[in-house]
């Protein structure tokens, strides 16, 4: 199991990764997300041994790497998958996957499993982006690394391909039984593909938990906002019940919150019905195809975002009736 404890990385006098702690499960897919510049790539480079660390340790099976006694990349048995595929352009698909491979039967296995059977003799230039990334993945997995680091493997691909390839990658990692840390910009990808999600902010891990917990019980308002549309409704928390302008709702106190709180509402926690006697006024509306996203002002200038079926219609300025419809407890943050 890969164990990272108290890992810090500095560039000059700037701390870019600050006291990172994590343990990667046996065949776990851990997604790392965070805003640009928060240190995601730096963490992968440090784990791979490509940059020096300032403090802490990284350990796996037989090796333990520290700032004073670093273990070189070639001794870490790490596989890497990059956004630009990093294939040898002069080699065929088969030669790319078999490069420095002792057991080519494994290459055959992964070429077949990732649907590359018919492209064995093709050069990378003749492949689509998705095929190139499959080749890169087949090559990495066929070398049987102890763990795999993926740095935004889908960011050079179009939206439709991203959606299917993310599942193929996850399934291949699971079939190989190799744990992975996967950096992405895409919150939806992190939530849907990860066994756990780590949310970084300014070099610090703000939360590391299951996708469900990170989304429904975020450790901070930053995590709440980063993982999706988030509205905050003032209320009063007593026990596990919050009294709000939209009536009572079940609440979960975050970080010991009690008394005056802001309740986290996701767009699907609310309903909206056009009504001249309604308790809110539409600020704006965005058509999304299957759905519409409304921003609605309720009492005291609070704005809430609610997603409805595309069939619901209300123009900016129209009155609407808003209600909390969720039955699961909502995260309550101290005000
Ligand atoms: N070689 C370097 N020298 C100095 N500073 C660097 C270097 N590489 C990265 N940084 C800085 O370290 C911080 C973290 O960078 P990093 O590339 O890890 O962020 P990231 O989360 O991967 O960003 P992005 O999502 O934009 O790829 C940034 O402020 C960046 O400017």
From TrEMBL:
InterPro entries: AAA+_ATPase, ABC_SmlMolc_Importer, ABC_transporter-like_ATP-bd, ABC_transporter-like_CS, ABC_transpr_FbpC, Mo/tungstate-bd_C_term_dom, P-loop_NTPase, Transp-assoc_OB_typ2. The keyword Transport applies. CDD domains: ABC_Carb_Solutes_like (cd03259). Keywords: ATP-binding, Cell membrane, Ion transport, Iron, Iron transport, Membrane, Nucleotide-binding, Transport. Residues 2-227 form the ABC transporter domain. GO terms for molecular function: ATP binding. It comes from the Bacteria. SUPFAM superfamilies: MOP-like (SSF50331), P-loop containing nucleoside triphosphate hydrolases (SSF52540). SMART domains: AAA (SM00382). It holds the Pfam family TOBE_2. This is ABC transporter ATP-binding protein. The lineage of its organism: Bacteria, Pseudomonadati, Pseudomonadota, Gammaproteobacteria, Cellvibrionales.
């Amino acid at each position: 199991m890969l164990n990272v404890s108290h890992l810090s990385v500095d560039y000059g006098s700037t701390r870019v990764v600050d006291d990172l702690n994590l343990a990667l499960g046996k065949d776990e897919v851990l997604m790392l997300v965070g805003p640009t510049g928060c240190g995601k790539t730096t963490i992968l480079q440090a784990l791979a041994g490509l940059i020096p660390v300032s403090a802490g340790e990284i350990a796996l099976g037989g090796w333990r790497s520290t700032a004073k006694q670093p273990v070189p990349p070639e001794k870490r048995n790490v596989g890497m998958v990059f956004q630009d595929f990093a294939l040898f352009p002069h080699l065929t698909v088969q030669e790319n996957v078999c490069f420095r491979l002792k057991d080519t039967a494994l290459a055959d296995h992964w070429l077949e499993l990732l649907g590359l059977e018919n492209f064995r003799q093709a050069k990378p230039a003749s492949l689509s982006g998705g095929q190139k990334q499959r080749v890169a993945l087949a090559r990495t997995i066929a070398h049987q690394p102890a763990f795999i680091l993926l740095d935004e493997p889908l960011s050079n691909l179009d939206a439709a391909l991203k959606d299917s390839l993310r599942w193929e990658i996850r399934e291949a990692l699971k079939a190989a039984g190799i744990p992975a840390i996967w950096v992405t910009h895409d919150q939806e990808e992190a939530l849907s593909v990860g066994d756990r999600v780590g949310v970084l902010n300014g070099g610090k891990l703000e939360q590391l938990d299951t996708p469900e917990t990170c989304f429904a019980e975020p450790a901070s308002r930053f995590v709440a906002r980063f993982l999706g549309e988030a509205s905050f409704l003032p209320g009063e928390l007593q026990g596990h019940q919050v009294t709000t302008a939209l009536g009572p709702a079940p609440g979960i106190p975050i970080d010991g919150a009690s008394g005056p709180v802001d309740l986290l509402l996701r767009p699907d926690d609310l309903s909206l019905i056009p009504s001249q006697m309604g308790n809110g006024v539409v600020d704006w509306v965005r058509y999304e195809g299957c759905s519409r996203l409304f921003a609605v002002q309720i009492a005291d200038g609070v704005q809430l975002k609610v997603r409805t079926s595309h069939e619901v219609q209300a123009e900016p300025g129209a009155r609407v009736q808003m209600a909390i419809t969720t039955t699961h407890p909502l995260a309550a943050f101290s005000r």
